[in-house]
């Protein structure tokens, strides 16, 4: 019964929470989308995805409009 309970929590995590925070990408795919896998994004960057590497996120440069 405990195994079923843990499995249910894991499936809920995969279904709802993980999709809301971003998708898991490999470092090559992150760099193809003009990003870098880092532990923290710089102030002028934004988080676009989550890298496979432990505790790393894919950061990309923010594009601002000059007006």
From TrEMBL:
Keywords: Antibiotic, Antimicrobial, Defensin, Disulfide bond, Secreted, Signal
Molecular function GO labels: CCR6 chemokine receptor binding; chemoattractant activity; lipopolysaccharide binding
Segment forming the signal sequence: 1-22
UniProt xrefs under InterPro entries: Beta_defensin_dom
Major localization listed first in the record, in broad terms: secreted
Record's keyword annotation contains Hydrolase: no
GO cellular component entries: extracellular space
Family: Belongs to the beta-defensin family.
Function per UniProt: Has antibacterial activity.
The protein's name in its UniProt record: Beta-defensin
């Amino acid at each position: 019964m405990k195994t079923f309970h843990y499995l249910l929590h894991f499936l809920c995590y995969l279904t709802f929470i993980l999709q809301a925070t971003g998708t898991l990408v490999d470092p090559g795919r992150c760099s193809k989308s003009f990003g870098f896998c880092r532990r923290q994004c710089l102030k002028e960057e934004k988080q676009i995805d989550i890298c496979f590497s432990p505790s790393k996120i894919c950061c990309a440069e923010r594009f601002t409009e000059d007006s």
